């Protein structure tokens, strides 16, 4: 049986979460792959975990169900027969078409998935038996530093998770370290054109967008930084250093 540390990465069967899971496997972690319904990772992720000599299992959990979210940590620990050493709260709700002021229902839906569920998972990790110090890394968004008028419910829920990072770092110490990574535009959807992405990169202070490997490396660093808690690393090409009038999808369209 493996004695590697165990990492639970929410939303990790594809996209950014999969890149984070792959980097953690290569850093020596066994991986609990999470999906809201499907638990089958993309083939390249399975290959990278196998190449790293690590193990993985898949877990389905709808994070809108807070009772199920809170129970997920115990499910993972029981399946691997050891506690979760690292939780990466990557899964989130995002409504790219949200405009104007949000409804109360939209606020509640975003806060449930993007704030309450990650907090419940973090507290469940801290409550696990054993003397080992656990670690939580929350995935935020660079927009929390200088918000714009688009996707307000999403932005507010990520700002709440950013403050929860600082608060839980105090409340869960010394049992658990809590940090965060705030990415910029990293994996563009089909709403962006290649030409637009080139122009957006040129708008960043560093002249580049963040890449999945950049975010994954920051997560690995925080997971293995024993004297670090309550911190947020912005990995965004410098985007948080200046203001943008709208969400990136609306900018630099030519």
UniProtKB/TrEMBL annotation:
Show the InterPro entries listed in the entry. Answer: NAD(P)-bd_dom_sf, SDR_fam
Q: Which residues form a coiled coil?
A: none
The record's GO molecular-function terms, alphabetically, read: oxidoreductase activity
Question: Where is the secretion signal located?
Answer: none
Family matches, as Gene3D superfamilies: NAD(P)-binding Rossmann-like Domain (3.40.50.720)
Domain of life according to the entry: Bacteria
Family assignment?
Belongs to the short-chain dehydrogenases/reductases (SDR) family.
Output this protein's name.
SDR family oxidoreductase
């Amino acid at each position: 049986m493996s004695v590697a540390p165990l990492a639970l990465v929410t939303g990790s069967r594809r996209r950014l979460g999969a890149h984070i899971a792959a980097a953690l496997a290569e850093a020596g972690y066994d991986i609990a792959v999470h999906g809201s319904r499907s638990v089958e990772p993309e083939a390249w992720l399975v290959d990278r975990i196998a190449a790293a000599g690590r193990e993985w299992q898949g877990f389905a959990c709808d994070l809108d169900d807070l009772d199920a979210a809170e129970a997920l940590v115990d499910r993972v620990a029981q399946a691997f027969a050891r506690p979760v050493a690292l939780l990466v709260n990557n899964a989130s709700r995002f409504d790219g078409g949200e405009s104007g002021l949000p409804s109360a229902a939209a606020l509640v839906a975003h806060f449930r998935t993007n704030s309450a569920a990650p907090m419940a998972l973090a507290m469940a990790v801290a409550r696990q038996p054993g003397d080992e110090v656990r670690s939580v890394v929350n995935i935020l968004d660079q927009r929390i530093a200088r918000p714009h008028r688009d996707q307000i419910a999403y932005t507010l829920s990520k700002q709440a998770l950013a403050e929860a990072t600082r608060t839980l770092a105090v409340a869960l110490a010394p049992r658990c370290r809590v940090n965060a990574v705030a990415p910029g535009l990293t994996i563009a959807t089909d709403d962006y054109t290649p030409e637009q992405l080139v122009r957006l990169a040129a708008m960043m202070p560093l002249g580049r967008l963040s890449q999945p490997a950049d975010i994954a490396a920051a997560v690995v660093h925080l997971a293995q930084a024993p004297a670090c808690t309550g911190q947020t690393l912005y990995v965004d090409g410098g985007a948080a250093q200046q203001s943008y009038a709208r969400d990136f999808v609306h900018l630099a369209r030519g």
